[in-house]
Amino acid sequence: MNLQYVPTICPYCGCGCGMYLVLKDGRIVGEEPWKEHPVNEGTNCPKGKNAYKFLYSEDRLQKPLIRKNGTLKEASWEEALNLVAEKLKGVPPESFGAIASGKTTNEESYLLQKFARVIMGTNNIEYCARFCHSATVAGLLPTVGSGVMETSQVDIEQADCVVIAGVNIKETFPMIARRVLRAKRKGATVIVIDPRRTATASYLGDLHLQLEAGTDVALINGMMSAILAEGLENKEFIEKRTAGFDELRAALSATSPEQAADISGVAAEKIREAAIAYAKAEKGCILYDEGITQHTTGADNVMALADLALLTGHIGKPGTGVNSLRGQINGEGTGDMGCLNVFYPGFKRVGQESAEFFQNAWGVEHLPTEPGLTYMDIIHKCRVIYLVGANPVMAGPDSTNIKKALDSLDFFVVQDIFPTETTEHAHVVLPSACWVEREGIHAWVDRRVQKINKVIDPPGEAMPDWWIICRLAEKMGYKDKFDFASPAEIFEEIRSCVPQYKGITYERLEKKAGGIHWPCPSEDHPGTPTMFVQAFPTADSLAHFQAVEYKPPAELPDAEYPEILNTGRSLFHYHSGTMTRRTDTLNNEVPEGYVEINPEDAVRLRVRSGNRIVLETRRGRIEATAKVTERVSKGCIFVPFHFSESCANILTNPALDPKCKMPEFKVCAVKEEVQA
What we know:
Elements: E1 3-9, E2 18-24, E3 27-33, H1 46-49, E4 65-68, E5 71-74, H2 77-88, E6 96-99, H3 106-119, E7 125-126, H4 129-132, H5 134-144, E8 161-165, H6 169-172, H7 174-185, E9 189-193, H8 199-203, E10 207-209, H9 216-229, H10 235-241, E11 242-243, H11 245-252, H12 257-264, H13 268-280, E12 284-288, H14 290-293, H15 298-312, E13 321-324, H16 333-336, E14 343-344, E15 348-349, H17 352-362, H18 375-381, E16 384-388, H19 392-395, H20 399-407, E17 411-416, E18 428-431, E19 440-443, E20 448-452, H21 465-475, H22 487-497, H23 506-511, E21 516-517, E22 543-544, E23 563-568, H24 584-587, E24 594-597, H25 599-605, E25 612-616, E26 621-628, E27 636-640, E28 653-656, E29 663-664, E30 668-674
Parallel strand pairs: 6-7, 6-16, 8-9, 8-12, 9-10, 11-22, 12-13, 16-17, 17-18, 23-27, 24-26
Antiparallel strand pairs: 1-2, 2-3, 4-5, 4-18, 14-15, 19-20, 20-21, 23-30, 24-27, 25-26, 25-30, 28-29
Helix pairs in contact: 2-21, 3-21, 3-22, 5-15, 9-12, 9-13, 9-15, 12-13
């Protein structure tokens, strides 16, 4: 049997696990462990083990589609690109928006933001980070000067106290959970902060602070007040490497673990115990995700965690830090490439200086200097949208209103690999290649830059996103600015204008399993697994405490809607389900949406597991199957967001964090009833 074994990286979460794809006669027929890969050492989660199967789904988009008389009809590339170019020409900058993806390569994301800025003249460019980690950037920039993961995944094992806040790593970042388990076996204390009794809390947690949803700031402030009361703050670190401590101490003087207990529902002694364990650790590591960020107070939540790390000096060493866990294969890299309304590539803030830098780099004039619209404003205020590899109908809050906004657009073009809930609203759909159907660079959760090689051809006439963007730019008269023959050529331009990537080359990545952590300023530099070792990237090289006060969620339970709704992921599915629900092995494990409900609530409602239940909020109604479990507290409901037929985001609240425009996905008022 003539089999080939080709090394590659998993297309799912932000870990960046290695694997070998098994090829027979040009078709992928299996997956084998890559034992030498440092992230997963030969182990893959269920999604990784079945990663290739979605590629061969029968409904892959294989030809361009144009909407004619209300129906999408197959068309040639020439006809489709001519139509898109015609519709985009003359659109005012303020009326155009581009939405990028956390799954496309760095090269493709870079080209899309360049298209928006050079051709369309706008900073109206966004991607899914607005819905997951905009609060991270808004919270960490003013505190430590950068919104990235600060330690490497491997070094988590060095921690002797791990705080896991608002993330179920056992199901959503399994390889990071393995690192925490190893630390635990060496004696580390694991503290879980989460309103649900997740698999992480049950399997890894020594101490579970099961707080009321949306009370994170109160809880963290209570922990810091306990640390100060015990005199456990790291005085030397505070004096040498921080500013603003006096203001923080004054703000915390009005709080206590007892006050935090009244708000959060966590016993004061538990809060005190967790605080002392973290403060006394030699290396304390904070891991967090959307349970912290997806609130109208998400930026404040992140600032509070940063204050906690700074107060104890748990930052700037391997196995420490305030570490955001980005959930997509290129959730980090697409941001690095400038697909944000306030940042050019390399996190150069939008303004005259950055515009002039890229005018010189790209050989153009008059790049935009004012911040663009954020994700939701692009959807609701722009008249023309170019969307690549995203599914906001499933992923955005209050999805009924998102559908209405998309249907009202003058022109909407979507690039994707499958028909989705969002392509249903498009005027033109362009078929993309994905994952191992093209080559390119991604940056994973810990700034780990790796290269994915092309293994197979895309189906039908589907083409790589970089090729599509270049051809469209040519149609619009900008061939000289998008004249690339390969991703390698695009990456050389990226290296020339993104300092964090300057020392990273295709050749180096092809030789090094596990890739290179940016920043990497030169080709002889090994990369940077740990951030902030000597200084913080701020004007004075210091970290800055940012005292924050507790504010309640935007929508709390009342007589009409008496419960709290929380949403999240499951082990066997990924985001909007576009890939995993087309993988039978995974979909058979969790084939439909469900509602987790506490046993006491189930008795009150006369609900049993398996009953159909209707959930209703002020935005809409869905129906799903009840799952009675003590994983959720009394008065709380949990719904996974992968299932279009019970779309959780029909229910969620579009209220925004004023500091970062993050929607409130994690808390809203809901009522339920048994389906008759």
